[in-house]
Each structure stands twice: as structure tokens, then as C-alpha cells.
DNA sequence: CTTCATGTTGACCGACCGGTCATCTATGAA
DNA sequence: TTCATAGATGACCGGTCGGTCAACATGAAG
């Protein structure tokens, strides 16, 4: 067992929770250490800086995400268009659960961090961008398959995929501002109506 | 002339710029004072706390916004559906101008603040929510008029309006993460395809 | 038994945080 | 001329920030 990395893991998951629930700037290293029951010197043994911690947190969350409900939602056995609904549902239930427990909607960690730090830290911005790109590719794939199966007419699937991801982030943003996860369900159904036509192949 | 309020105005516009370009937590009162050429004591003469400053900044920006290009975009003389494109265009040009000057996309001040502080400060959250509500009403009105004019079939105009606002915020978020204002134009066109049907009137 | 790497401890650093306050100045009305 | 008020000044507060460091514990390899 990775007892050797237990401390690191504890730091990581504590930081993830705190960053997600509040913000990057608002959470101090001391607070993370206290909650994770780790000494400050130990922290800096594993993470050279707060920025490095943020990088690790993003990686960690992106992994859990990709192998968790995103993998479920974009299951190849599901009809492509149903995957979109599944993704919305997953976001809804996640945020609802969080709100039921903590009383407030944390929103999407990636979206939160992106808006908070992408003007200040280009490295973190690039990393978050990569996460979004990867997510966008899932939508892209689903759309291409839907076209192949004749479920929808041909369209600019790459741009539409990005638009769908943007819409997902947007409704989570709005839901968080309203502190009401139901917004995700109420508006989320519209994701399938989004559509960007193929450019004229002049 | 309001020389009497010149100091206050300088604080306000400086804070607005800094909050918009970076974040709430990352900008200190000292920095605002230095840039606005105001003494700290003077600052606290006008604003009881940083939170009050944020409130004022949001009000200030919301005013400029409502009377500025939002008023233009949602001009009653424009065909309803064109207003949507106009709004996307306005967002695009604004962000592009900002990037050309400062090298980075600040995104939407309201969206930025909403994700950063709405889990920590319910008063500010409520204020931002009100701003979004007001913006949503413009979309709502445009949609209702489009239905009236027979330009689009009847739909749940209120929910669709919210979805459109969410989409706008979402593409700005994605564009900011990519640091590329073109994203707004490329994806923005899809806003008109968003559609939420009326609930079954069983 | 020694060596060395991995990890732990907690005191410590300078800088900065949001916020306070006594003091001073400028203005305009009585 | 007096007086009240609005505003400006900058030193000061306790606390926290991200980060450093030398000393120490542990355990496996030689």
C-alpha cells in the first residue's frame, strides 16, 4: 500500500475540497495543512509551491472525472445523444448532492479556477484549457457518431462540441450564482438543440 | 461638478479594472489606493469595507453595462433575433479590444466574481444573481417578441432566455480559458439555436 | 553499525492583508 | 469670525500570507 504517499494524498484531497468549495486565493496553505493534519514543512516536501499544488489538484480531479461519471456518461454503449443528457444529469446530481451536504453549490472546479486564475497564471490556464479540450473531445465524438447513425443531420461537430461544453459550464455558473442545482436540469435539456452548421465548403 | 466625489469615483473605476482583470481576492486595498492615488484612510472614508467596495463596483459596472452596449444590443428597433447576434458581437469586440490592449481576456466581471465569491459571500452572490436576472429579462423580452412576430414557434421563453444567458457566460468562460476572443464569435452563432419547449399543458 | 534517502517537525522569515485612528486641512454657512 | 462638517493623511494594528530551514526520525541497503 502507498503508505509512503499517504501524506501527499491527504494534502491533495484536502486542497481539492477546499479549492472547490471556496477558491484558490481564499484557501491558505496553513489551512490545508491543519485540515490534512500535516506540518507545513511536510507540505513543502511534496509540493514546491502553491502553484504546483494547484497543478496536482487539477490533474487529480481531471483523472477522477475522466474515469468517473464522464466515462459513464460517454459510455460507448449508450446512444450518442443520450450521452448528452446523461452528462447533464450527472452534473445535476453531483451539484445537488454537494448542496444538500454543504448548503451551497460549489460549481465546476475547472470553471471556477479558470475564471479566477487564467489571467494571472498562464501555466495553470494552459492546464485547464487542456482539461476542457479533452472534455470537448467526448462531445465531439458523440456528435460524430450521432451523425453517422443518421440521428442528426451533418453539422460542424467540433465547434458544436465546444459550444455544448461552454453551455454546460454556463448553466453550472448560473446555477451556482442562483445557488440552485435545479437550474442545471431545467436548462440542461437545451444542450441537444445547440447546433453550429458546417462552414460553406466554397 | 462632482469634485467632491472625484476620489470615490477614482477608487471605484480603479477597483473595477483590477477586479475585472485579475480577481477579487488577488487585489488588495493598498494596490487600489496606490493606483487611484488615494490614501488608505480616504478609502475607508468612502467604503466601510472591501465587501462594500465590491457591491459598489458591481452596481457601477451593471449600470454602465445596462446603459451601454446591452442597451444597444437590445434596442427595441432591432429585429428581436438580431439582438442576440448583436449581443454576441458586442461581447466579442469588447473582449478582443481588451486582449489587444492587455494581452489577456478578462472575461465577464459578473461571471468571474460569481464563481469566485458566491460560495463565500451570500450578499454579493444575491447581487450578482440580480444582475443576471436583469440580463436574462432582456433575452426573455426579445424571445417573446420574436414569437409574437412569428419569427420562431412558441417556446418556453423564460427558460430559453436563461439558457441563452448561460450560454453567453459559458462561451466567455471558454474563450477566457483559451485566451482567445474568437471563440466567442465562432461558438456564439449557436445562441439562436438554443430552445426549451413549453412544458406539456396537460 | 554505518550510510543514505525519505519524510517530519515547528520555529521562523519578510511581506502583505483588511482595517483603525488621531490628526490635520479646506470649505462654506451662520 | 467662528464653527461644523467633509475629506485627506499616514502611522499603526494584529493577523495571515507563501515560503524557508536546520534539526530530527525512520527504515532499508551496504
Note down, in words, how this protein is organized:
Two copies of one chain form a homodimer. The model of chain A has no long low-confidence stretch (mean pLDDT 95). The first copy, chain A, has ten helices and no strands. Chain A is mainly alpha-helical. In chain A, helix 1 packs across helix 2 (29-36), helix 4 (50-67) packs parallel to helix 8 and helix 6 packs antiparallel against helix 10 (182-188). Chain B binds a DNA duplex (30 and 30 nucleotides) through residues 4, 7, 28-30, 38-46, 48-50.
In short:
The structure is a homodimer of 202-residue chains. The first copy, chain A, is mainly alpha-helical and 202 residues long.
Ranges of chain A with pLDDT <50 over ≥5 residues? none
Estimated structural class of chain A: mainly alpha
Number of helices of chain A: 10
Instruction: Report strand % of chain A.
Output: under 5%
User: Describe the biggest sheet of chain A?
Assistant: none
Most residues in contact: chain pair: A-B, 48 and 48 residues
Q: Report the radius of gyration of chain A as a whole number of Å.
A: 19 Å
Shape of chain A: elongated
Give the SSE order of chain A as H and E letters. HHHHHHHHHH
Number of strands of chain A: 0
Say what oligomer this is: homodimer
Determine the fraction of residues in helical runs of chain A and give it as a percent range: over 70%
Q: Alpha-carbon distance between the termini of chain A?
A: 60 Å
Amino acid at each position: 500500500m502507498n503508505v509512503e504517499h499517504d501524506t501527499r494524498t491527504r494534502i491533495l484531497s484536502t486542497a481539492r475540497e477546499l479549492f472547490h468549495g471556496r477558491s484558490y486565493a481564499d484557501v491558505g496553505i496553513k489551512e490545508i495543512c491543519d485540515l490534512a493534519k500535516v506540518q507545513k514543512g511536510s507540505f513543502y516536501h511534496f509540493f514546491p509551491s502553491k502553484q504546483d499544488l494547484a497543478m496536482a489538484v487539477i490533474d487529480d480531479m481531471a483523472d477522477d472525472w475522466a474515469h468517473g461519471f464522464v466515462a459513464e456518461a460517454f459510455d460507448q454503449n449508450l446512444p450518442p445523444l443520450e450521452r448528452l443528457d446523461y452528462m447533464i444529469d450527472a452534473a445535476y446530481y453531483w451539484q445537488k448532492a454537494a448542496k444538500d451536504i454543504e448548503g451551497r453549490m460549489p460549481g465546476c472546479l475547472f470553471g471556477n479556477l479558470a475564471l479566477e486564475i487564467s489571467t494571472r497564471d498562464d501555466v495553470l490556464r494552459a492546464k485547464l484549457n487542456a482539461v476542457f479540450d479533452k472534455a470537448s473531445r467526448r462531445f465531439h465524438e458523440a456528435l460524430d457518431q450521432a451523425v453517422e447513425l443518421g440521428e442528426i443531420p451533418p453539422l460542424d461537430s467540433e465547434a458544436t462540441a465546444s459550444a455544448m461544453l461552454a453551455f454546460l459550464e454556463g448553466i453550472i455558473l448560473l446555477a451556482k450564482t442562483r445557488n440552485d442545482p435545479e437550474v442545471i436540469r431545467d436548462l440542461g435539456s437545451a444542450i441537444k438543440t445547440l447546433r453550429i452548421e458546417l462552414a460553406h465548403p466554397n
